[in-house]
Amino acid sequence: MPKVSIIIPFNNVEAYIRECLDSVVNQTLDDIEIILVNDASSDKSREIAQEYIEKDSRIKIIDLKERQGQGFARNRAIEIAQGEYIGFVDSDDKIEKNMFFELYNKAKENDNDIVICQAREYDDINERFILSGYYSLKELEKMSNKVFSAKDIKDVILKLNVVLWNKIYKREYLLKTGEKFPEGFIYEDLPFFFATFLPAKRIQIVWKNLYIYRINRKNSTMVQFNKKILDRPYMVSLTYEKLKQFDFLSDITDKIKGWIIDDLFHRYSLLQENYQKEYFFLMKKIFQNLDINDSDDIKWKKVYYFEGYKLVVNNNFEDFNQKVFNLYTDIHIVEDKILSKVYNRLETDSLINDIYLEINTIYNYISSNIEKNSEILNLNLKNTKDDIENELHQNINDIKLLGQEKTDDLYSQINNSKEELYKKTTDDYKSLTNIIEAKINSIKNETELENKNLSDGIYKEINNIKNESDNNIKKLDKEINSNKEEIKTIIENKIKEIEKKFEEKLSFQKIEYENKIKELNSKIEYLSQSPFKRYMEKLKNKNA
């Protein structure tokens, strides 16, 4: 069983499908199933897809002889999907290489029904990325690192994005709901989202922008919606019926009705004039079934949702256009301007956050090197101490051996000056031991002090770099990408400079240790010429 089945319907997207498929087949999660649905393409999309099918055994394809729409295509793909989880990708979009790895691991972490990620938009005409508030999941910030259900977030449920492609669904759960996409419509994801999201018990979020949604594409379904926008009232009405099935939403009934009114009004404002009248009567029929006059919320009735509702229900098409449409459009123009400023701010905040993350990464790298070098320094200090002690013990053994060879010659002298020699030898040995221990402690203290000063210097450098970066962040705008590289280069040079100084310190310390060892060897040599040795020589000569 594949870990994830990825469903990709396509129709006449030869300019984009190659980029889409490249991003899918190169996922870091290798155990995937890719199900393509050719919705009667008449361009070269099918030929391009065939290239990938021949190279990758994970790809399957369903060919539809007549255009059926995405709802039909997705339903057919779900029927043959074998993956543990199911995800969706639009054929003119692309995804980050780790998208399904991240989503699947999060899903398995807590046996989740649904996992969602953030997304960003790509403006195809202006060739730039845009951070959209609609896909930022800001409404769910309180659910960070939590497993939650729709009931836990019912107050913001109507603000969520309803798209499919930034989510994966457990196949077992999806089949259990029995939910299908409405076929032959656009906006088919609206009722499907609520029908599958609301009963889910285990939902989690991956707080990463993993999906890239292409906007402003020529010949896009969402651009050529004029007549198909007449599907919107049907899909909203179907969604309303599904929402009413969930008792835990009963206390936000008025919000749901307000959402429906605003949604249909907004779509009306996008229509060409020749479709407005038909849309108006579809909208009016839905409004009449909302039973808004029964609402107990007096404050709610004062907002423009309710005023708009009354103007639709109580007027014919011509009067409605004359009385309210211009006013409603002006209101949304102001709202759109405000939202535009908010999204620009979000985009700027995201860029600044990226720079902070990069600085933090460099800081962690420097800290890691400090710890690593400190361990090396301590190890060298310990090894040097062990070497000194081993050499001392070896020299003492040599002295004892030499003394033993001369014992007979010095026997009489030992008897005459035993106490004095013993006392002097003991004092000399203690003195030498104290000198060695003092030198070792001195070396250790000096090393620790130098290490501390060096660490303080490094941390000071880190703080200087961070403070300098914080100030520069405020000045970054369009040139931020190039400046990031420049900052990175400066920091890398600083790190190299610090590491070089550190190596020089270690080299200097090594020379000092070698000098100390020579000094100790001289002391030991001196000790070998002590009265003890002369006494032993005399004793040997005497016995001879």
State the main characteristics:
544 residues; Spore Coat Polysaccharide Biosynthesis Protein SpsA, Chain A; 9-stranded mixed β-sheet; 15 helices
What does this structure look like?
The protein is an alpha/beta fold. The protein folds into 3 domains: 1-224, Alpha-Beta Complex (Spore Coat Polysaccharide Biosynthesis Protein SpsA, Chain A), CATH 3.90.550; 225-314, no CATH class; 346-543, no CATH class. It has helices spanning 17-25, 45-55, 70-80, 99-109, 171-177, 189-197, 231-243, 253-268, 273-288, 304-313, 317-405, 411-416, 418-473, 480-528, 531-543; strands at 4-10, 32-39, 59-64, 85-88, 94-95, 114-123, 128-130, 167-170, 203-215. Strands 1, 2, 3, 4, 5, 6, 7, 8 and 9 form a 9-stranded mixed β-sheet that branches. Strand 1, helix 1 (17-25) and strand 2 (32-39) form a beta-alpha-beta unit. Helix 11 packs parallel to helix 14 and helix 11 runs parallel beside helix 15 (531-543). The radius of gyration is 40 Å and the shape is elongated. The model is unreliable at 221-225 (pLDDT under 50).
Radius of gyration: 40 Å
How many helices in DSSP terms? 15
Unreliable spans are 221-225
The first-level CATH class of the largest domain is given as Alpha Beta
Residues in helices, as a percent range:
55-70%
CATH architecture of the largest domain: Alpha-Beta Complex
Overall 3D shape: elongated
CATH topology of the largest domain: Spore Coat Polysaccharide Biosynthesis Protein SpsA, Chain A
Strand fraction equals: 5-15%
Class from helix and strand fractions:
alpha/beta
Q: What's the name of the CATH homologous superfamily of the largest domain?
A: Spore Coat Polysaccharide Biosynthesis Protein SpsA, Chain A
Largest sheet: 9 strands, mixed
Distance between the termini: 95 Å
- Reading the helices and strands in chain order gives EHEHEHEEHEEEHHEHHHHHHHHH
- Quick one: how many beta strands? 9
Mean pLDDT across residues: 78
Number of domains: 3
